[in-house]
Specification:
Layout: H1 2-12, H2 27-45, E1 51-55, H3 56-69, E2 78-84, E3 87-92, E4 95-103, E5 108-112, H4 113-119, E6 128-134, E7 137-140, E8 143-150
Antiparallel strand pairs: 1-4, 1-6, 2-3, 2-5, 3-4, 5-8, 6-7, 7-8
Helix pairs in contact: 1-2
Length: 155
């Protein structure tokens, strides 16, 4: 009924549940409208996917710096991504690198260096690069990397 209601509203260019002759619409169409309104309320309650938008050149330079610091081919290590206001903090072993970024990541995402550097694109296109965390995966440019999310402890 929601689909039929949407089609009906588009056909008559209606914002309110009334038809062309200003009479009340069919009660089944009202069920469709109620379902649409309900879905909007539910979607408003669901938090967005944790996403960080990092400046492309800084991010590439930071990842290249970490890759040159440590040999990930022989010994794997974790790379941590976390967000502080205005900055993306990338940590690996004893190295911390900051990159201009904005977003909504609370906590820390850990990724294997081997997995990241083997499949990370050599070039980023656009001004910003989106890093998204869904499930147990970190997505960078539609490439997915197995990741672990840990929540920050507030003391």
């Amino acid at each position: 009924m929601a689909t039929i209601y949407k089609l009906w509203a588009e056909a008559y260019d209606q914002k309110e549940p009334f038809d062309i002759i200003k009479g009340p619409i069919d009660s089944f169409l009202l069920l469709g409208k109620k379902w649409i309104d309900y879905r909007k309320e539910v979607n408003a309650l669901i938090p967005p996917v944790p996403t960080i938008w990092a400046e492309r050149e800084f991010l590439r330079n930071a990842l290249n710096y970490i890759e040159r610091q440590y040999d990930w081919v022989d010994v794997d290590y974790d790379i941590q991504f976390s967000h502080i206001p205005g900055q993306l903090l990338i940590s690996a072993k004893n190295t911390e690198v900051y990159c201009p970024a904005r977003g909504n990541l609370i906590g820390e995402v850990n990724v294997s260096a081997k997995a990241l550097f083997r499949h990370l694109p050599k070039r980023f296109i656009g001004d910003v690069v989106a890093l998204q965390f869904k499930g147990n995966k970190l997505f960078i440019y539609s490439r997915e990397f197995p990741a672990r999310w840990t929540e920050q402890n507030e003391e």
